[in-house]
Design a protein that fits this description.
single chain, alpha/beta, 9-stranded mixed β-sheet, 371 residues
Length: 371
């Protein structure tokens, strides 16, 4: 059973109830003193604690999408992640099949487009990662010669998280379809993945010295493989990147550090510097300059700014990074440009981000050029 499926949650809840019933029935027999009854009572209390905690944790995971499978939980689900360089170009994308989904009562690709489940292999970085690619219906009906005219948005989730949350919770393909139908944006290809492409390590989208080259994968390998496989433009003006939380930091950093790959980026509740904890390890190899260069506020204040368009989203109340968001807005100078979505209140959660995804996606697609 899938980790986020209702039968799994139901089975865990039934197990917890069974253990509780067993405890009520056995407890009078363990009421006497002595070593064995005491150990029995301790064992039952531990069993109740563990079995009651499991359905709670499963429910939280289902709501927030931290793990999409038991393999993700065990950090075993990332396939083909070898140290050797992978194939380039069209061979860099392996399509596993189409993701089954419906929207507004339809499952017809001619109406809602198609979501490919793929593995992208990095020719330069040696990293492989699973991703989803949403091809809008306009792309599917276009002749191959016209496909380079579609803008491309790379959407990144936070950490810890999975790629599925971008479809199931953020609903990026659905939001894009609504935007096109309302006339607020033109059709775009969506490439959706988690920035945690070398799980379980959180690399903060860094090229780690003597370690995984995640920035290279996202800035170069991903673009080259997807562009060639789907016949898309490689012009950086046609490519944008957005994300929430750590994914937002990655998006903004990719535009600032790799303007030859992405000319527009949006960060929702983004952090502005790389985290450093037990999940990241040493990301900088002891190089203090490299650390500063990946601090977005330091970078804006001390280095030339590239000709990119940036958007940041935050809330005046409920977001701990709001002061840094204001500092980021104040630090941007031409030729870079910056816009913002500032909510009166909101937390670091999906409810807040879902209020920001559609205007941010429409803004981002509006800044991409394919001609």
């Amino acid at each position: 059973m899938a980790i986020d499926a209702w039968p799994t949650l139901t089975a865990a809840a039934l197990l917890a109830l069974a253990v509780l019933a067993l405890t009520v029935w056995v407890w009078p027999r363990l009421a006497s003193g002595g070593r064995r009854p005491v150990l029995g009572r301790v064992a039952l209390q531990l069993a109740i604690t563990l079995t009651l905690g499991v359905p709670l944790l499963l429910a939280v995971n289902s709501s927030y999408g931290f793990y999409a499978s038991w393999g993700d939980l065990a950090a075993l689900a990332r396939d083909d992640r070898s140290a050797a360089p992978g194939p380039s170009g069209a061979e860099g994308v392996r399509v596993h099949g189409s993701h089954s989904w419906r929207y507004r009562g339809s499952s017809d690709p001619a109406v809602i487009g198609r979501i490919d489940s793929v593995t992208v292999r990095g020719a330069r970085s040696g990293i492989s990662s699973r991703a989803y690619v949403h091809l809008p219906p306009e792309y599917l009906s276009a002749p191959p010669s016209a496909r380079a005219g579609f803008p491309v948005v790379v959407a990144l989730s936070g950490y810890p998280s999975t790629t599925r949350v971008l479809i199931d919770l953020f609903k990026y393909p659905q939001v894009a379809l609504d935007g096109v139908r309302s006339g607020a944006m033109r059709p775009a290809v969506l490439v959706m993945l988690t920035p945690n492409v070398v799980a379980p390590r959180d690399t903060e989208c860094m090229d780690v010295p003597d370690g995984p080259q995640v920035e290279t994968f996202l800035a170069h390998d991903l673009r080259a493989a997807v562009a060639e496989h789907y016949g898309l433009s490689r012009d950086p003006r046609a490519w944008g990147v957005m994300g929430n939380s750590v994914g937002g930091y990655c998006a903004l950093k990719l535009a600032l550090r790799e303007p030859g790959s992405y000319r527009a980026a949006a960060g929702l509740s983004a952090s502005y510097h790389a985290a450093s904890d037990s999940t990241t390890g040493d990301l900088f190899g002891g190089d203090d300059r490299y650390r500063r260069e990946n601090d977005l506020l330091w970078r804006l204040r001390n280095l030339p700014q590239p000709p990119v368009s940036l958007l940041v989203a935050s809330s005046r109340r409920g977001e701990h990074q709001y002061p840094d968001t204001r500092a980021f807005l104040d630090a941007v100078r031409p030729p870079a440009r910056v816009s913002s979505i500032i909510l009166p209140s909101g937390g670091h959660n999906y409810e807040t981000w879902n209020r920001e995804v559609r205007p941010a996606l429409e803004w981002l697609v509006g800044r991409l050029r394919t001609q």
